[in-house]
Each structure stands twice: as C-alpha cells, then as structure tokens.
Structure prediction request, 300 residues.
Amino acid sequence: MATSVGFIGVGNMGNPMALNVLKAGFPMTVFDLNPKAMANLVDAGARRAASAREVVDGVEIVLTSLPASPDVEAMYLDAGGLVERANPETILIDLSSVLPSTPRKIEPRAIARGVHFLEAPVSGGVSGAQAGTLAIMVGGDAQALKRAEPVLRPIGPNIFHVGPVGAGNTVKAINNMMASVNSLAMMEGLVLGVKAGLDPMTIYEVVKASSGGSKALERIPRALVPRKFEPGFKVALMNKDLETFNTIAKELHVPVSFSNVAQRYQQAAMAAGLADHDTSAAVLIIERLAASQVSKGDPK
Prediction:
C-alpha cells in the first residue's frame, strides 16, 4: 500500500510539488490557509483538510512549504503543532527555505516524541517545481531520508543528503546567494552592452559560448528581452534568502561582500514595488540607474 502523505502550504511552490507527489500515486491530504490554493489538488484526488492539525492525524509523511522561519516554527512547535500532534514514527519534512537555527530547534523536540524530522529546502523555482526537476538539499537522519525518498523523488531527482539539520538550509542559502550574484553580474554586463550599442541577443550568444557563460544567461531570452517578470522566484523571497546567508556569515565571522551588494539590489527592487515580481525584475533597477533599457516594451 502506498505511503500516505500530508502536504501543508500549497502556494506557488507547494502546489506543483504536491501535485507531482499526488500524480505519483501517493494518497494525499492537503491544507492551505487559502482554500482556492487547494482546489486543483482536490480535483486531482487529494483530500481537503480543515486544518493543519487534521493533516497530520492520519498520514505517515507530512511535507510543509511555508514562507519563512516564524511560520515554520509556529507550525511545528506551537501547542498542538505538528511535532506535538504527530504519531510516533511519522516523518515530518520541511521544504521551506529558513534560517538553519529553525530546523535545529525543531529536531530535538521531534526526537523527544519519537517523531522524525528532516529539513529539505529545494532549488529550481516554480518551473522546476512544475517539471518535477527540483534539487533537494536534505539535512537530518539518513535512515529517515531513505524511508522518505520515494515521496521526495517526484519533486526532484537530485536528492542530496548534506549533513545534520541546519546543513540543508545552509547549502540552500549558499546556492541562492551565488545564483543572485551571478544573475546580477549578468544584468549589469547586459545593460552596459546595450548602452554601448550591442544587441542583447548578440551578447547572449557570445557569452554563452565563452567563459562567462552560466545558467543566468537564459534569463536574457526568457525574461529580459521579452520583458516578462511574472514570478517564478519572487524578489521578496530572494531578499529573505540573502538575509539568511548574511546572517550565517555574521554568526561564523566570514567576511562577505557580493551577497551584500546583491541584497541591496533586491531591497531596491522591493522599494520600487517589485517585491512580488520575479528576481529577473532587478534588471529594471539597473536600467534606471544606467538610463538604458535592454529592450522596448513595458514589463509584464
């Protein structure tokens, strides 16, 4: 009999992840504070729960995808929360991107109740969640992960056990810092090139075939030239993840520079009303400062 799964938090990222797990044949119970977010999952065969507590009552594995550390800590650690409510041997897996201190608070409480807890932040954005190609960075007990792997595999094939709890969110913060810095460097170069009279797609083709090539370049034909900034990974979320990276750096006394510059761009984008746009929208800030535009057309 297939493992029973609960999924709490089925927004932009959680919904496609939950749908892929459901399509893989796992019976699922779902809950979100927004009833409309659950509709497509219920139509696909999931059971709608009236509360998060109801989700955890009758399932073997619970997945959560929540906005930030305060939400995760409240969900898991408050009176009547997931840790207190879960049956012994239940595996609780948090897919959220949070401060490493958050899973470190949750795990000992879970162990004390005979419950397993894993942190499993993901990378790949909404498109990766939809395609089931996310990278999953797991911190926690290896045996619990082995039991949970069949449920995680529909979310993404690249499942990495990176160490104890806290390690997963540390790796995630490193990844997102590097992705943000890489993308912003590409945008600065692109805007400079366009102001110098170069065609943006010429820059794309040349750099793609040269040593400056990276995944960030694909934003040029996908978002920057067509001016498409619908959220895949929101500016506000990248700002949060950069704050996490900078917090870890301060705690460990590691001097960092590029992450601070990247966060200032995200904060400028938020101040300009772009918090809910895709992180590619940071190019609009660079364009305004440079008095140049990558291509014509209003942002969408």
In short: The domain at 170-290 is CATH 1.10.1040.10 (N-(1-d-carboxylethyl)-l-norvaline Dehydrogenase; domain 2).
